[in-house]
Amino acid sequence: MKWVYSDYDLDNRVNNIAWTISGNYNEHIEVLEKNYSSKDVSLYLGIMAGARRKYVDWNIVKKYLSNRVNKGYNKDTLLTLLQVVLNNLVESKVIKDRPGIEDIRSKAYKDIINEFNTIYKNDILQKIKYIFILEGIGKHPFVDGLSRRIINDIKNINLGNELVEILKDIDKLYIRYFNEIKQDLKLSECSQDIDFKDVDIDFDTFSDFMYDELYSDEEDSIENELNSISSSMLVESIGERKVNSEKSSLNRVIYIDEETANKIYDKIEYYYGKSYLNKSEIKRIEVKNCRNVHEGCRVHFTEGVLRSECKNVFQVKYVTRHKENNLKKYRENIRVYKRSINRLKENLMRILVEENITDRIYSDYGTIDAKRAWRVGRSNNTKIFYRNIENKKGRYVIDILLDSSGSQSRNQYQVAIQAYIISSALTLAGIPNRVSAFSSFLDYTILKRFRDYNDSIDKNDNIFEYFCSGNNRDGLAIKSVCEGLLEREEENKILIVLSDGKPNDVKFGSSKERSIRGEISYKGKIAVNDTAKEVRIARQNEILVLGVFTGKENEIDAEKLIYGKDFIYTRDIEKFSDIVSNYLKKIIEN
Q1: Average pLDDT score over residue span 569-579
Q2: Higher pLDDT residue, 28 or 321?
Q3: Are 301 and 449 in contact (CB under 8 A)?
Q4: Domains and CATH numbers, the chain
Q5: Is 421 exposed, middle or buried (0-12, 13-18, 19+ CB in 10 A)?
Q6: What's the rounded Cα separation, in Å, for the pair 288 and 310?
Q7: Confidence at residue 183, expressed as pLDDT on a 0 to 100 scale
Q8: Is the dihedral of CA 76, 77, 80, 81 positive or negative?
Q9: 249 strand-pairing partners
Q10: Average pLDDT, the chain
């Protein structure tokens, strides 16, 4: 793998065009908002970066989205509608001001489309996005009646209106086509003659959302997802990119200079806290684990911003707020949770005591039992000796690995509480355990350690620092956690992974998180197969791996492929501790 310096002339040109479009030379264009795989793509990224800053007030959009999600709108559906309409808004305005940009857009779209081997057309909204892209490069695909009606309604929105008026039109679109049961409409239903009535709703108080306060936990998740659509082109998220062979990937050129690499690492420490491992140890782990599909990836082992060196005051406050909220939820039912801890502890200790009982077996040899000596010559039962059979199962050590990607935000406090219950019971039962969470940010897989194997019980409070953001590169996280688990001297090693979705770590959906290495897209079959491989390797190394899945039913098959027979699906995260209790009981007894 080669590291080369960026194309500074192109870099300056992209910066200048972004500044020119936005009209503000004080705007900071992130190095990760640029793409050097194609000159036309890079130029268009710079154009759109400036145009989005100029033409859209994203704070208003954020307030609108938060308000509507709180009122029961489907977040994913509304986000896609916003992406399509606001992309049209930005493109139409910037092309109107500078007509020559239309030609750059067409070339950039063609370059990106050529990088895909699969286009997402599994539902009507994905199909509509693809149609807009094709029309943007001068093609006119066949469109079914329903899709054409939605597209026409989107095109009929007056993009010259104020942003609030445009949001009102988006609201009407949502209610007309996607409200309630319609939001799950699949592509297979598009050909049906469905009657959608006109919307007749009083919008006099529509702009009241502008006065909403934005302090909920849901707001953090909304902001992350809105950042994704507010910093990327529509074309970037329409499909799955082609995968180069491993052989060709070895010669892939990574456009980054040493200064940029250091800035990226500084950014990681700024948001997640300083690593508790030294650089040589991190390098050893990366050289060993960051290969093939993880080529160019990095790992960051941290204890978080509250217990590590961190200069990011805002992030410290942010994590503190999440910890206080998680603790608040725990204290609301503290008696119930304490009973759960004691019940799980007692179950574990009873099982361990039973398994450590020495069994006495009578035999023809061994230690003589004086009470049986009378049988000699008087009975056919000549077993007057006994042997003590001791438990050979050995000791136990457990790792609990929590998915902390953005999709888990809906379960955040429940996950923190259940992990606290399990870890506290294990600690009180004398079983060494470590609790960690994983997520992805930029090119790094972040592994946050809440408690180490031999920490005292009071360290379990750190688990309430759990919060969710970013993506999830499960294979690399499992591989890295097993490094420490294999070094333990206990005979029985157990890894429990809690997740709510398929492995997914794709950077091209958000240009602010654009990969610096052009890595293989980590999603779909590639991600599932890689994670399954790491689980098999762990089991070959005699680590017992349990997968607990709390996500959507349509993703169960992928999770079963990853974890095999040691896999449990539950819709209720509150049952996590009970699931683990039953699993440990089965493992110890068998």
Answers
A1: 80
A2: 321
A3: yes
A4: 56-241 (no CATH), 296-339+395-589 (3.40.50.410)
A5: buried
A6: 28
A7: 44
A8: negative
A9: none
A10: 78
